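tool=predict chain=A
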Amino acid sequence: MPTLLSIQVAQARRVQINGRATLTAIHKLPISGAVPVVTMGLAGDEQADLSVHGGLDKAVYAYPAEHYPFWREARAQAGLADTDDALSCGSMGENLTLQGVLETDVWVGDVLRFPHCELRVTQPREPCYKFNATMGFNGAARAMAQHGCCGFYLAVDQPGHLLAGETFDLLPGPRRLRTTEMFDAKMFKHLR
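tool=predict ok
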């Protein structure tokens, strides 16, 4: 059964990216205990650029833990030291680190039913320059686009709370569009 391994939140803060101060909340940190989930996302979480993150359709970002070995290897190939220790849950900027559900398993409209709330899949995440900076090498966004290990955004259909370690059900939605198909279409125009 799919499992919620970890929950992460962050407040927006200014960091240096490409020589300029940039506001970001990509540096998510683990949080323990029951985390309230409201229509706009997780309590204590913030998005810096609401034109591309947050809102009703991007309230929560989920990422499969199964992709972490890929990123450790990609960082090692880029010559980054301490690759195993540098990537903990939340390193992709995700709120929820999931195990047992990949992008290929979910369709737009599917629902993740947790014991105390329900979250609906709305779209895949699109990588940006902040992801490159966070991962420590300039090819990270391109690698995410090429390999499709993007994770997906969730809308809050039923507010409540989440606990790390709890299992959830993946309930089929209308099954018209896979998140991978949507991601491939968006990335194709960027990679041409």
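The chain has a mean pLDDT of 92. The first helix runs from residue 68 to 77.
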